[in-house]
Amino acid sequence: MADRTAQETLTRYGQALDLFSDRVHAARPDQWDAPTPCTEWSVRDLVNHLTVEQLWVPPLVQDGRTTEDLGDAFDGDVLGEDPVAAWDRAAAAAREAFAAPGALDRTVGLSYGDTSAEDYCSQMTADAVVHGWDLARAVGADERIPDELLAFTAREVTPYAGDLAQTGLFAAPVEPPPGADAQTALLALLGRRA
Question: Which residue from 30, 95, 128, 139 puts its CA 20 to 30 A from 9's CA?
């Protein structure tokens, strides 16, 4: 995504983590097994997914390791007995790794090849934003996505949204209703009905 600055990327990433964190902290103890808009995932599965994504950041960005080096290091349930604390620790470490001087200038070795750390951070931002909505829907929290995160995420995912369904990890885009607002249009692009 060429029309962003490194500072904007870091700012939006921080906001996306805060958004997702608010939803994690809103989950009641009896909601961890509740379904989410991600049909295969419970609330716990969704939070585990985002926690695992954050756990990848320090070794990839700080240590220069690759996903191949790390193998299955973060497979399975990483939430343990206290899912909220596990999320908080992983998010704080990832935020620190991306914010380190020069971190976004690095190249990271992802499963699909070498990627700029800034692009990786931008992808992580978009994922946290969209899954933040999923989590909000599942736990009955505020589903609104702030305008600046909506705009950032739309710019990030629009170029490759059509290919996401082919990965098997995303639903196919759906037609937004007539007159849909920006949030509804973005969610429809990513296979969600708001």
Answer: 139
Cβ neighbors of 138 (< 8 A, separation 6 or more) are 31, 34, 35, 36, 37, 43, 46
Q: How far apart are CA 5 and CA 190, in angstroms?
A: 24
pLDDT band at residue 1 under the 50/70/90 scheme? very low
Q: Report CA 117 to chain centroid distance, whole Å.
A: 15
Q: What is the pLDDT of residues 50-98, one digit of tens each?
A: 999 999 999 999 999 999 999 999 999 999 999 999 999 999 999 999 9
Distance between CA atoms of 194 and 183, rounded to whole angstroms?
Answer: 8
- What's 119-186 look like in SS3? HHHHHHHHHHHHHHHHHHHHHCCCCCCCHHHHHHHHHHHCCCHHHHHHHCCCCCCCCCCCCCCHHHHH
Q: What percent of the chain has pLDDT over 70?
A: 97
108: left (phi over 0), alpha (psi -120 to 50) or beta: beta
Query: Once rounded to an integer, what is the mean pLDDT over residues 183-187?
Result: 95
* Domains of the chain with CATH codes: 6-189 (1.20.120.450)
Q: Which helix (H) or strand (E) holds 24?
A: helix 6-26
